[in-house]
Amino acid sequence: MLKAKDARHKSIYKNNIPITKTDWNVIGYWNASLVLFDSGIDILDKDIRHVELMKNGKTSTEQTTNRDKWCFRIVNELIRKQGTKQFLLGEESSNWPKIKEYEYKNGISIDRITDIIMNHRKALETWKQNKLRNQHKIIDKQQRIVIQTIEHEELNQQEIPTIQHAVVDDWEDLI
Q1: Within a 10 A sphere around the Cβ of 5, how many other Cβ atoms?
Q2: What's the pLDDT tens digit per position in 56-76?
């Protein structure tokens, strides 16, 4: 079960940590702040390393140590809500994939919450790549439109004959 390990965490959460809809939103913002911004790449690598060693560590001590570090990261985010601070200004889009899970009022296992978090990060990464691909398509389409309008304007300028202003002495010469 996901339990508080730190003294400060234990003062807030007594026993098993309940996960509510609000907590899922906090975790979703946390994942989005790590995946969508370049500043979170180092932290993502560190988290993946903790999870891999937690599951596949050589010794039980190594597994327990990394499990405690990973639990600390999750509980610390639930308390501090650092991931939501990057989205307070409203400059970034928030239509990324959300975590849609049940509430775990009696606590959740570490393996279950880890799977949910890692699957959400993969979904965010896929969404980010698709968004970048779509932005490149839009930019290419806008560039093609600009080029076509420039070419069209150049053709129109070539087709318009220039009018020469000449003094006509006799109107019969024009016929």
Answers
A1: 14
A2: 888 989 988 988 888 888 888
